[in-house]
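Colleagues,

For the teaching module next term, I've prepared a clean inverse folding example: a structure given as tokens, and then the sequence designed for it. I'd like students to try predicting residues themselves before seeing the answer, so please don't circulate the second half yet.
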């Protein structure tokens, strides 16, 4: 009995040691995928004002499946990552959190802030200009190929001079006429 116990202990210890060694040696040499940088609400607005950038506020909940899809598929898309790093400040707000923040000299919990923005479904995305003015709130999941034109429309000020449909027609027309390498 003691012999079997020693053998089993030896086998288990060897297996554990081997598993540890495999884990250490199998580190993935590939660089980590680039990601967007998220800030909390107040620091995000302050950074946007200082850097003169638009703020994109992602209102989410921990249980929201589409929020997770948007994180992975939209905010994880190379074109969105590139655009965001150059031109935006991104903020995440857990719309069910009791964490406190301030907006326009008033204190809110994140839950109250979501309600103040008119959020009633998740995900919801608010766009705030560099001066702190709320441009719009878009409810629901937005795929990356639809999100980038929205970012360009709002961030580049096209919303001041034309309707979104006009902007899309112009944008799509100019992309069709662009050389293949520029698309």
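(Answer key — instructors only)
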């Amino acid at each position: 009995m003691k012999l079997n116990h020693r053998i089993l202990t030896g086998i288990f210890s060897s297996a554990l040691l081997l598993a540890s060694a495999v884990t250490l040696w199998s580190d993935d040499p590939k660089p980590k995928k680039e990601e967007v940088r998220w800030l909390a609400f107040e620091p995000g607005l302050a950074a946007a004002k200082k850097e003169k950038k638009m703020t994109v506020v992602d209102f989410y909940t921990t249980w929201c499946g589409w929020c997770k899809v948007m994180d992975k598929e939209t905010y994880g898309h190379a074109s969105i990552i590139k655009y965001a790093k150059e031109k935006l400040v991104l903020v995440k707000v857990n719309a069910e959190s009791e964490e406190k923040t301030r907006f326009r000299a008033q204190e809110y919990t994140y839950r109250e802030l979501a309600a103040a923005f008119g959020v009633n479904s998740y995900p919801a995305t608010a766009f705030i200009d560099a001066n702190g003015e709320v441009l719009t709130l878009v409810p629901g999941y937005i795929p990356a190929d639809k999100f980038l034109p929205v970012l360009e429309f709002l961030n580049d000020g096209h919303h001041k001079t034309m309707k979104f449909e006009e902007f899309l027609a112009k944008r799509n027309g100019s992309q069709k006429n662009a050389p293949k390498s520029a698309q």
